[in-house]
Structure formats: structure tokens, C-alpha cells
Amino acid sequence: MNIKKSTSPFSLIFMLWILITTIACSLSGATELTQETPTPTSGALGPSAKQTTTPSLCSGLLGELEVMVLVGPAEAVGLEPFSVGTIPIFVTTEAPPYFVDGSKQLVYQDMLVEEWGTYSVDLTMDIAVTGECVEIDPNGNLDLTVEMTGEQMVEVISEGFHGEYPWAGTHSLEIDLQLMDGASVAGEGWEFILHLEPN
Asked: How far apart are the first and last CA of the chain?
């Protein structure tokens, strides 16, 4: 005799409830896991974090402009331009355009003694330097205006001759120097040499 078992509606409902509860718990656990996973902040590891700013060649520039001039009439003794002093220069701005400024009074006295006699110079000159430091690869440039105002007395004494040659006036020069220690620019009777301090 065969006995056939039947499942009651109550048992089916109970099994279905367990199945739904299990699925709901699984979904709930997955949601909590997703929420606990840290999200990386944008930009922290992006390309901008690796970029570095190249320091400016002109920012904080300090140095000196050595002044070499031909004092007195060159024809008298055949002298070449020689150093009469230095003008401190510096950048006055912290961002482009980088303006350059500097000024100083130079006082120079000297005497050349030769077999034919003596050649003495007394020079007082006020020099003002203005301009701009321009960043041009690889080193940059100084575009400067040099204003020189002063007076000079040259005295030449030789056997049977005594001459005095006074001069007073203002002279302006436009010069362009490469931004390198030791860079120079010269003209007729003058020369300027750039000396830079470590930045």
C-alpha cells in the first residue's frame, strides 16, 4: 500500500519566508560592504600632484653692474676703459614683469705716472639703472637703461706743458645683457660687466 505525502500550505509559506529572508540579508550585507569601502579623493593621485613649478630666473635677482669707462681724452695717453666702481642692482617686483633698479654715486681719483709726465683724473658720477629682467630660454636677459650724470677733471703735466680738461654732463645708454654671471656689453669708451649673487 502506497502512502502519498502532501506538503501543507503552511510549510510552503514558511519555506518561502526563509528564502526571502536569506536573500534580503545577503543584499543588506553587500550594501554595507559597499558603503564601508573608502572612496579615493580626486586629484590626490592625479597628474596635478606630480607637477612642479620651475623657479623664476628673475625673481629675487641680486647683483652688481661693474662700470668701466675711459676717463679723459684717450688720445692723450692711449688708455683703455677701466673699472671705476660697481652699481648694485636688484629686482623690485615679485611677479612678472620683473622690474630692475639700482643707483650709486661713483667717486674715482687716480694718477698715471710716465716718463713724459703725469695724467691725473678726478671723476664724480651719479649712475641710475632701470629696466626689466625678461625670462628667455635658457638664461634670460636684462634690458637696462643706464643714466650717468657727473663731472670730471683731467690734468696732464709734462715737460713744458700743463693742461686741464674739465667735463660735465649727462649721458644715457640702452644696454642688453644676458642673464649670466660675467656677461658684458661694451661700446666706444665704456663697458659694463654683470656680477650675479647666488639666488
From this structure: 109
pLDDT of residue 73: 56
Regarding pTM above 0.70, the answer is no
- Pull the grid cell for residue 184: 658684458
Cβ atoms of residues 191 and 185 within 8 Å: yes
Classify burial at 93, counting beta carbons within 10 Å of its beta carbon; exposed 0-12, middle 13-18, buried 19 or more: middle
Q: Domains of the chain, with CATH numbers?
A: 62-196 (2.40.160)
The answer to whether 104 and 85 are in contact (CB under 8 A) is yes
Are 160 and 149 in contact by the 8 Å Cβ rule? The answer is no
Q: What Å distances lie between residue 195 and 86, 97, 171, 178, 181, CA to CA?
A: 9, 21, 23, 11, 5
If one counts every other C-beta atom within 10 angstroms of the C-beta of residue 43, the result is 9
Cα–Cα distance, 93 to 186 (Å, whole number): 28
